[in-house]
Sequence to fold (675 residues):
Amino acid sequence: ELNSKNMMDIRRDDDTRVTNVNLLNTYMNTYVQRLKTRELAEAVVDSLSAEELQDFLMPYVVPESERPIDAEEPDSAGLMMKYALTVDRGEDDGSQLIRLVISHPNAAMAQRLANAYVDGFINYIASLRSTSTSEASDFLGRQVKLLRDELEEAETELQEFRWEHNLFTLQQDKGIVVERLRRLSDAETNASIRLLEAESRVEQIEKAQNDLDRLLEIPFIGGLTNINSIYNQLNELKRERQALDATYLKRHPRVLENEASQQSVSAALALSVEHACKQVESECSAIRFELSILDQKTSQAEQAVLDTERSLLVYKRQERSVENLHRMLDLLSTRYNETNIAQKIDLNNVRVLNRARLPSTSNALSRVQVLAGALFLGGVFLVGVPLGIELLDNRLSSFADIEFYSGKPLLGDLRFFPKKDIRELSQAVLRNDEDLVESFRLIYTNLRLKNNLGEETLSILVTSSLPSEGKSVVSSNLAGIFSSHGYKVLLVDCDLRRSTLQSAFEKNNDLGLLSWYKEAVHLDDPTGDKELAMLLGIVAINGNLSLLPSGGTSSHATEVLGDRKVAKLFERLKAKYDVVIYDTAPVGLFSDATLVAEYADTCVFVARQYHATRSKVRNSISLMEHTNAAVLGVVFNGIKNVPAAVGYGNHSRNHYGAGYEKNRKKYKGYYDQAS
Fold:
């Protein structure tokens, strides 16, 4: 397959040059997409002669002589776009170069199509820009005319508005009205203050309740000159009466004359006080009337100011509108002139940088190269990908990982059963669960081979690296399998941080190891086995199996498990039972298991597939190796991926995976006969 390449340099004119990179990318991407349009492909096909078209179609369609009579004509433009055409930009994002590649087995045809494509695209762009510029010029011309008419109409309306509202002296009138409004406001404020004073005097008069003495005590009444003179005259007559009463009898003419004078003066005083009160009330009414007049005049002045402001606002708005129209007309006129000039110059901003040459070499891959590439990719996927996954994932995944990284033998393995809950899993042996019981029988057999189960008591510690690896399930079923073989077994829940055995066997956890420890019962006390079992809360699971619950949880588990009192308790329990199994907290997180190891003979380590890392398991087993209960072997639990656990190849299958071939379907007759 031969390629013929064309390079096009796209440069914009100075008046429309691209100054923004994002805008440049938009232009260039638009050109690339236009090169890929069907319209351009059809134009290139139309430019070919009949012989050239046949040469182009030869690699893609059956020759015309061999096609059926009713066969449809081949889609030449579609074939060219699909198989021959490749368009892309330069390597730099800011480049203004477009590369066009035509691939075709015929070298001359590849050159012919590449040059035809470029010439057609340049003509297409020139025609497109010419049409676009002409349309833009016509549109701008119409807009300039419409805007000029609109501007003339707006200027006429503005002038008429000025004459109608007399805006030539409106600014001066506005200043006079504003000054008048200020004076009215000051007068209204002064009148309001005087009204408050007058209303205060009226209120004092009303509180006096026509009592002459109380009225005279009011300063603005008693302090009046005429009232003060009459009041002094009345007091003088009263003093004269006192002197007359000391000298004359009541009916003496001078006494009677004095009495008549007092009555006359008192009446005059009352009349003067009443007149003063009415004068105060009249003053208050006058001020109220004055305020109402001022309020009316103020409202009129404010309305005049508002009318003036409104007229000015309307005028300013119309004036700004006229200014905007002027600016728009100037801009449109400038753009219209520029477009007319651009219409008369060369509109083509695309030129050919390198025309297509006749290709001399083929870029198609040979069969040998294709085969070599396929073999290489196959090797990468078949070998490289599994090795990469193996290197990146350092969790335990197979039986080989167990023996290599732990350095301990595999005691047995357990499949993953997501539909079984904790009770079903923990009581699998007791319920004779066919999915799990055979696995625990195998573990029991391996333990017997590695331990002397004679007359001596055996104590086993069960632990793991991390939580949720299944150590409680393994310890429960180990206890069950030993009890089914006639051993008297005690299962001790030493996981004082997160106890689960009582839930697994559906027992109460009120009594247990912690409750006994907190009661401070000494083993030196004459306590029998039955009484001790009651104090400890030991419950019977079946005839040979008993459970010592944790009796709660505690954050001070190491203090409890390391106490000498607990050590004596475990020694006494070991003397009573054939097998004691300790379920402990994960040794990879807590040191509880290393303390319980002082009371155990051996350790069974539980590891779940894809749960703990290889280094974590190795470190956890190393910790147990420094205790009294060394790790005897590992139980591989929760196997989800059987092929990964067994390994790959015939050797791995024969070494580890034999048990997985013996499923119940394949050996149904054997299992039915055995049961």
User: Anything to note?
Assistant: The mean pLDDT is 81.
